[in-house]
Amino acid sequence: MAVSIDFRPVILAGGSGTRFWPRSRRARAKQVLALEGERTMIQRTLDRLTAPQGLDPLAKPHDVWVITNDLLQDAICTQLDCVPRHQVVCEPAARNTAPAAGLAAFLIERLHPEAIIGIFPADHVITDEAAFLATIRRGIDLAAAGDNIVVLGVEPTRPEVGYGYIETGSKYADGILRVRRFTEKPNRIKAEEFLAAGNYYWNSGMFLWGAKTLANAVRELLPDTAPLLEQIAAAWGTPDFEKVFADLYPQCENISVDYAILEPRSARGEHHSNLYCIPARFGWSDLGSWTALHEYHLEQHTNDEHSNVVEAEGNLALNAKGNYVFSPNKFVALVGVQDLVVVETEDALLITTREHSQDVGKVVKELAARGHEKLI
After folding, report:
1. Which of 252, 272, 282, 334 could form a disulfide with 268 if both were Cys (CB 3.0 to 4.6 A apart)?
2. pTM of the model
């Protein structure tokens, strides 16, 4: 990464992590939990950007912005106490990733117009930080070289229907591919076709682009939302900011970066879109469900898919395999069961199977519909 490039990481941390219910709640969502290790997900995200162990950081904590919500603000400000509190921006309404990333672009464009922005979800796990940092530095250089959008793609290992996919085209440079198109969450048949084709990558949700590049893309492709975000950014740092933010942000279109920016941009064609994919060969997981957490534990410790993962005071397993159990204050005995997910908190108990753990988010919707606000 060139020394002169001004890099500003933006951590998106507004989600509620419903598939990790009952541990994840509105006010203590997945990103502020320590699901793997002692540091929380968002702390680990900040660590690898600003304080990687034994490696040169990409940025300083005061360069970092966080987009979150009011329910998580206090927890995030406490956990990320080195990030300026005024750069932890709380959305007054959930509007998906395009308005969140767009707001960051308009804010940073006003303050640091030549900056390169990195968009980083708060809940990813990266196992090879040296490779991660090298990849990001390469992406920053490419993003700074023109009106370029760089996305990090993960080589798929299964026909996953819960991720977006990047179809890559011709080689741009060593280790960098041009992008043909983006496809959001295909059905099973399509996902199997993408896996077999060999030129598709999972969309990691990590992007690199100039503040001007993203702001201009929002102006072009979200013409109704862009003026609202510009007014909010213009009010930032003034006494009117909170009112302007609360009044205007809910009027923004509720849409993802993928649908709003990437798909229309890719329609220009791979040689005209300035869209590039860098394969993310640094060990990646988004820990999107209890099953994903179970698999991650196994990869790190046993590499045996039939092992049990039990977080408890102690445990005993008899003729039991493939289970995930979280019951930190009790002894757990597993007898004759397979592929279960059991998660206990003070006020709730989840029992499902690994196969159906992606459906846990439906529980939260049903609890909300039935008025069980204390449980969500």
Report:
1. 272
2. 0.93
Which stretches within 254-359 are classed as H helix? 257, 263-266, 290-301
Task: State which of 285, 305, 332 marks the end of a domain.
Answer: 285
- Report yes or no: 327 and 22 within 8 Å, Cβ to Cβ: no
CA distance 258 to 246: 25
Which residue in 188, 87, 202, 213 sits closest to 153, CA to CA?
202
Q: Report CA 176 to chain centroid distance, whole Å.
A: 22
User: What would the two tokens of residue 253 be?
Assistant: 């279109």
User: Given phi > 0 = left and psi -120 to 50 = alpha, else beta, which region is 339?
Assistant: left
Cβ neighbourhood burial of 105 (10 Å; 0-12, 13-18, 19+): buried
Domain that holds residue 232: 7-285
Is-contact 261 98, C-beta < 8 A?
yes
For the chain (376 residues), the mean pLDDT of every run of 10, in chain order, is 82 91 93 90 97 95 97 96 97 96 98 97 94 97 97 94 93 96 91 96 97 98 98 97 98 96 95 97 90 88 84 96 96 98 97 94 96 95
Number of domains within the chain: 2
Burial call 215-229: b when 16+ CB within 10 Å, e when fewer: bbbbbebbeebbebb
For residues 190 and 70, membership in a common domain is answered with yes
- DSSP H or E run through 197: helix 188-197
Q: Residue 93, CB half-sphere, CA atoms under 13 Å: how many?
A: 15
Helix (H) or strand (E) holding 268: none
Phi, psi of 328 (to 5 degrees): -65, -20
Which residues are within 8 A (CB) of 115 and not within 5 positions of it... i.e. 6 or more apart?
Answer: 6, 7, 8, 108, 109, 210, 211
Of 261, 285, 309, the residue at which a domain comes to its end is 285
| Residue 238 phi, psi (nearest 5) | -110, 165
pLDDT at 15: 83
Q: What is the dihedral of CA 340, 345, 349, 352, to 10 degrees?
A: -30
235 and 338 housed in the same domain: no
